[in-house]
Amino acid sequence: MTARLQRTTIGLVFFGLFGVLEAATIACRNEDGDAVDWFIFYKLPKRQDKESGETGLEYLYLDSTIGSWRRSEQLINATKSALGRTLQQLYEAYASKSNNTAYLLYNDGAPKSVGYNRNFGHTKGLLLWNKIQGFWLIHSIPQFPPIPEEGYDYPSTGRRNGQSGICITFKYNQYEIIDSQLLVCNPNIYSCSIPITFHQELIHMPQLCASFSSSKIPVRHLTTLQSAQGQSFLHFAKSDSFPNDILAGWMAQQLKTHLLSETWQRKRQELPSNCSLPYHVYNIKAIKISRQSYFSSYQDHAKWCISQKGTKDRWTCIGDLNRSPHQAFRSGGFICTQNRNTYQAFQKLVLYYQDCD
């Protein structure tokens, strides 16, 4: 082999390896743009008192590298926020028109829509991945995110109430499991691109992307997912054929723990705390940000729950269903972790909860 041919071969290997490393960088990202295994955000509601100076765009942040909530110096509508940094990868993938990357955006309250599409699950999220890895963002924000063509923005409708979400980085081998879970959730997909190279391993997402409806949707399904760095998560997915409150009727009994639940408690549309089953679900009524700052669950569109303090198992779950009589008949889900830092962070937010009558 000539010296010139050797240099050419080494160069091709280098650039080929560089391309693989670049492809592997799809991940949840923090505000510095660094990849993280997972992160959680809690967007705070807009305060009514003008003296506070709060805009409804401030948020708390927690990820796999830090031990407790941090109040972000960025606003959630900024491209340098954790969501902005993470979604930048979507816009880059869209602009490149690459056949090596897939994405799927879903929301029952899609951007620029009027009201909600109740023919689909009450579920909101975004997936971006390649054959190496990607991320799954599960959130509670209506009309978010915009379609990839429009770039990053945060809806004005998302300022008033609190919102929550979790982003998890997954290796590609987990996407076959996610594929089946999404089928159960029946998402309203408003933007997607799944090149044919993914169709052999993924069955349901390409069909959902093509607006093909399946008549064989499981009633409910529980599965274990493993993040890119090895943290285990349980994902609960229920269809509208399971006409029950997901937290009281399934999750609390499956996890064998009493749950404190924070979901949007609209007046005359909430379910009361439930102690009728072996494991109870109590509605959180107020969220504590600091000694001087708190807000009511009526101001909170977030969806999360934790094990009651003092119980053996310390679960934290984040999802997209409310405890409401109407949403007992909607599909959706929750993803749960026993990460200690996550549990302690959420436990500190609970000011008080409603006992059973």
Automatic annotation (TrEMBL):
<dbReference type="Pfam" id="PF03265">
    <property type="entry name" value="DNase_II"/>
</dbReference>
<keyword id="KW-0458">Lysosome</keyword>
<feature type="signal peptide">
    <location>
        <begin position="1"/>
        <end position="23"/>
    </location>
</feature>
<dbReference type="InterPro" id="IPR004947">
    <property type="entry name" value="DNase_II"/>
</dbReference>
<keyword id="KW-0378">Hydrolase</keyword>
<dbReference type="GO" id="GO:0006309">
    <property type="term" value="P:apoptotic DNA fragmentation"/>
</dbReference>
<dbReference type="GO" id="GO:0005764">
    <property type="term" value="C:lysosome"/>
</dbReference>
<comment type="function">
    <text>Hydrolyzes DNA under acidic conditions. Does not require divalent cations for activity. Participates in the degradation of nuclear DNA during lens cell differentiation.</text>
</comment>
<keyword id="KW-0732">Signal</keyword>
<keyword id="KW-0325">Glycoprotein</keyword>
<comment type="similarity">
    <text>Belongs to the DNase II family.</text>
</comment>
<keyword id="KW-0255">Endonuclease</keyword>
<protein>
    <recommendedName>
        <fullName>Deoxyribonuclease-2-beta</fullName>
        <ecNumber>3.1.22.1</ecNumber>
    </recommendedName>
</protein>
<keyword id="KW-0540">Nuclease</keyword>
<dbReference type="GO" id="GO:0004531">
    <property type="term" value="F:deoxyribonuclease II activity"/>
</dbReference>
